[in-house]
Specification:
InterPro entries: TIF_eIF4e-like, TIF_eIF_4E, TIF_eIF_4E_CS. This is eIF-4F 25 kDa subunit. One of its GO terms (cellular component) is eukaryotic translation initiation factor 4F complex. This protein has helices spanning about 5-15, 80-85, 130-145, 180-195, 205-210, and strands at about 15-20, 25, 45-55, 70-75, 100-105, 120-125, 155-165, 170-175, 200-205, 220. It is of the alpha+beta class. The protein has a single domain, classed as RNA Cap, Translation Initiation Factor Eif4e (2-Layer Sandwich), CATH 3.30.760. The strands form 2 sheets. An 8-stranded antiparallel beta sheet has the order 4-3-5-7-8-6-9-10. Strands 1-2 form a two-stranded antiparallel sheet.
Length: about 220
């Protein structure tokens, strides 16, 4: 597949269908095509990354969580990232209960993935009042820090997810080795600096979340 074919495929895949008392088309990408740059002018990222979208209402009808996840587009250069990002509606415009993920290519945003199975996540909860104004900024800053390798323990990072919720929006960074406390504290501390975030951050082990769901307590805080 050529790069042009991949871009066209990504734009086509972005028109995800959700069920809400009928069929509704979610135009998550704007109509303009992703900007194509000559290969020689592109700046390679250290890792290849993949965007995923979670169909919020689809999972309610599925027996297994994760079957509603859709792989959207994989990018490996700075130019590809901006070409895609500039044609994506911001998280503040996502429908309630939707999740948009950016994970290292080869890692699925699921607890069951081998790279995530023994990991956990740091979570930023946006304020209920005025949170939408910060959501887009925090998401962009998180992506840039992550794909730009600004974290000292970047090898620990699996990816990030922004979650639109009626009550309170969230952004989380998933990591691969929850028991590595020093690495997780380093990531959490640096993420707070990137966002200029002054509230407490908590880190929850995936194992705890699977067993206790919403009652899972943070093992680490910064």
């Amino acid at each position: 597949m050529t790069e042009n074919d991949a871009v066209e495929s990504a734009v086509a895949m972005s028109r995800l269908t959700i069920m809400s008392g009928g069929v509704e088309e979610l135009e998550y990408f704007e109509e303009t095509s992703v900007n194509r740059q000559p290969e020689a002018k592109m700046h390679l990222l250290q890792h290849s990354w993949t965007f995923w979208f979670d169909n919020p209402n689809g999972k309610q009808k599925q027996a297994t969580w994760g079957t509603s996840l859709r792989e959207v587009y994989t990018f490996y250069t700075v130019e590809q990232f901006w070409g895609l990002y500039n044609n994506v509606l911001p998280p503040s415009k996502m429908s309630a209960n939707a999740d948009f993920h950016c994970f290292k290519t080869g890692i699925q945003p699921k607890w069951e993935d081998p790279k995530c199975a023994h990991g956990g996540k740091w979570t930023v909860q946006l304020p209920r009042s005025g949170g939408k104004m910060l959501l887009d900024t925090y998401w962009l800053y998180t992506l840039l820090a992550m794909i730009g390798e600004q974290f000292d323990e970047g090898d620990e990072i699996c990816g990030a997810v922004v979650s639109a919720r009626r009550a309170q929006d969230k952004i989380a960074i998933w990591t691969t080795t929850a028991s590595n406390e020093n690495a997780q504290i380093s990531i959490g501390t640096q993420w707070k600096d990137v966002l200029d975030y002054h509230e407490k951050l908590g880190y929850v082990f995936h194992d705890d979340a699977k067993r206790q769901e919403k009652n899972a307590k943070s093992r680490y805080t910064v």
